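Homework-ish question, so no full write-ups if that breaks the rules, but can someone show me the predicted structure for this set?
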Amino acid sequence: MNTLTDEALMRSYCAGDHSAFDGLFTRYSAAIHRLMARNTRDDAAADDLTQATFLSVVRGRGQFASGSRFRPWLYAIAINALRGLHRRSGREVVTEHGDLPQEELEHPALPDPPLQRRLTEAIERLAPNQRTALLLHQVDGLAFAEIAVRCRTTEAAVKLRAHRGSERLRRELADL
Amino acid sequence: MKTRDEPEAATFSRIRRQVRREMEAAPRSLPWWADSVAIGAVSLSIATATMLLSARGASHEVSPLTVLALLAATFLGAISAIQPGARTLRLATLLLLAAASLALLWTGDRSRLSSARDDLGCLVSTCILGAVPAAMALAALRRFALDEWRTIVGVGGATAAAVLALHVHCPYGSIWHLAGFHVLPWAALITLGLSIRRRLVTDSFVP
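A: Not a homework solution, just the prediction itself:
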């Protein structure tokens, strides 16, 4: 099971092999929970959104297009679930252009609070599209192509944004 | 100490149990086009039944192009609202809906007038004939994350057949009648559908 690709597992699951879903859940549940926790700063909401994401995978498996990649699809579901939560609560979590909000900057605490503050402030100063590309790539481990699909842009544009973002961070934090 | 990023294993076990219950409740999933077929079939059935049962015929010119545009909007609306991806098809459907609206007005007669009672009859008919297909489209759209464009083409396509049935049987061909009591109620149904969809609980957040 571990050697199978996400897409092979998803195909098996869509074909009726429920154990294939466990493989996908094991691979992605922690990452999705982290994404939710960063964005909500609320354990209960993160649990609920993680559950909503995987329930959506189950309910929407008929909509998974064969030939498409699983991970961008899963993250698109997760972001939609976040949007749904924040729409209900009157806050928009992701901008129209798929950029992540300020809450996304709230990473798990670094051991050094002043360092964390400087890092957070430096990330805050990045352009929203650079921040999105950088965080999804560096923190969530998404490939540039996957980020491009979610942000509805090209892979080259995402790479450029992430590169510019990291260059700017490097300059701002050069004295550390 | 457990941080937010390291939830307890019990959390994942609980989520996994909940998902398993869902899988057991619905072990098989229908293909995406099942909803499209159902919405298209109901829209066309209602429109066809209305046309067969109504003895009246349109007094104004019924352009074959208008009929084709409305039929195409019905089919494409049912497909593009539900099909995964399909952004280009949704845009094409949106343009088709706009073109069909203009085509409806194009066939209007500038000289003819209708009474308030006639006008009200067409308005009510549009709403009644379009209500069930629109409700079906909204129910199907709950299985997707909220997407305004999906909703517009879904409800617009589902109600296009009702507009067609009304158009070929309406004896009042004034352009103002067509604009105010055929096209405007159609637009109002789409707007209402959008408003309802925003308030409906989303069943699944798939894109």
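Now go work out the reasoning yourself. Hint: The mean pLDDT of chain B is 85.
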